[in-house]
Structure formats: C-alpha cells, structure tokens
Design goal:
Helix 1 runs parallel beside helix 2 (about 45-55). By secondary structure, this protein is α/β, with parallel strands linked by helices. It is globular. Helix content is about 40%, strand content about 20%. Strand 2 (about 35-40), helix 2 and strand 3 (about 60-65) form a beta-alpha-beta unit. The model has no long low-confidence stretch (mean pLDDT about 90). The protein has a single domain (about 5-230), classed as Spore Coat Polysaccharide Biosynthesis Protein SpsA, Chain A (Alpha-Beta Complex). The protein has a 7-stranded mixed beta sheet with strand order 3-2-1-4-6-5-7, with helices on both faces.
Length: about 230
C-alpha cells in the first residue's frame, strides 16, 4: 500500500497564526504524499476565511467545519476524514515547527514504531515556558510513567504520530484537551510502545493565546487514572 501522511489541524480562533502554520505545512517536503485536514471548531474570528482562502489554492488542504466542541472533538472528526496511512496532529498556533514532522514520522514509515511522540523536554524550548505549565507537564508525564509502567517524558505534546489503524481501533470520548491523556492511556494500556523523539517548542503566554489552564491539568490527571483503572 502506498504511504500517505494526513496532518490533522484543529482550529479555534487562531486568525493570527493559522495562515503561517498552513503555509509552513505546505512548504515542508515530506517523504510521502501529504494531505492537510483542517477542522474548524466553530471559530468566531477570521480563521475559517483564511483557511478557505488557502484551501482554494491548494488541493492538498481539506477543510471541515463543525460547531465548537473542543480540541478533542475536532481531532476526532479529523481522524474520521483522514485518508492517509500515517496521521499526525498539528496545533494551529506557532508553538510547534512543521519542519520537524519528517523526523517525527520517519520511525513510523520505516517500521520502527507505530506511535511516535515529539518530546519538547528531550529537545529545545524556545522562549520561557510558564513555570506552572512546566511543572504541570512534568507531573502529568511522571503520573503517566507510574500508572502505565512506561517512561514518558512529554505526555501532553502536541506532536503525536500514528499508524492510522492504531487510532481506528481506539474509541475516543474526550472532547477537549483531555484528548491527549486519553489517547496516551489507551495506547499504553494496549501494550503499544510509544517512541519519543526530540523536538523544539516555542512557548506561548496566555496573552499570546495559550489556552491550557490548571483546570485542564487536573482533568488530564483524572483522565489518566480513569482509563488506567476503569475503562
């Protein structure tokens, strides 16, 4: 079967960055054919207009819109619409660099892994990450490692790549940012190995559009525990 990469981009009110993200994704030379699956999660700014403009000029950009339901619900729709054999998630902000995608998916394409996470804490953080987010990420990754007996340095990373059949076999229930721990928990619980590769990360503040809060961290921990013991 011919390999194809589907880059799933959930978008909610990212008019300041979405153009640059999509243009960067289009420019990056991938080792296989690619499609960019953009899911507009009920944006109320000019995000959809910008996305449609770019999609009108590039056949590889597929656009889907839905009512606002959270990142998890947008990613779930993206998975359903993706036609690739390999999938990766791409946030619509500028925290993650699309130029690093080829290295993230390489182990999947060459058969060394079925799941690859890009680890910010094994790579380089550009700017100053908020101490609360640093602590929260470290604690959640530690909790993941303890609960599932597998060392994970960056559970909350936005760069997660998979063989499509891995995700097709997992029912996703989370609608918001708790999607990240749910996917991680269900993969590890099935005994599937997660390979981590170093990536760079450009930290954002709340003023710059950062959306994750302490509440999301608490929900993430509860989600890990839920799917470890009760699913």
């Amino acid at each position: 079967m011919k390999e194809k990469l589907s880059i799933i981009v959930p978008v909610f009110n990212e008019e300041k960055t979405i153009r640059k993200v999509l243009e960067s994704l289009l420019k990056v030379k991938m080792p296989v054919e690619k499609e960019i699956v953009v899911v507009n999660d009920g944006s109320t700014d000019n995000s959809l207009k910008i996305i449609q403009e770019i999609a009108g000029k590039n056949n590889s950009v597929k656009v889907f819109s839905k009512e606002n339901g959270g990142k998890g619900s947008a990613v779930k729709l993206g998975i359903e619409k993706a036609s690739g054999t390999v999938l990766i998630f791409q946030d619509a902000d500028l925290e993650y660099n699309p130029k690093e995608i080829p290295e993230i998916i390489r182990p999947v394409l060459n058969g060394k892994a079925k799941v690859v996470f890009g680890s910010r804490f094994k790579g380089k953080i550009i700017g100053k990450i908020m101490w609360s987010h640093q602590l929260g990420n470290n604690l959640l990754s530690l909790a993941t490692s303890i609960l599932f007996f597998k060392k994970i340095s960056d559970m909350e990373t936005g760069y997660k790549a998979f063989r499509k059949e891995i995700l097709q076999g997992i029912k996703l229930n989370s609608k918001s940012f708790d999607m990240e721990p749910e996917i991680t928990a269900k993969i590890l619980k099935r005994g599937i190995k997660i390979l981590e590769v170093p990536i760079s990360y450009k930290a954002r503040t709340f003023a710059e559009g950062k959306k994750i809060t302490l509440k999301d961290g608490i929900v993430a921990l509860k989600t890990l525990i839920k799917y470890r013991f009760f699913d």
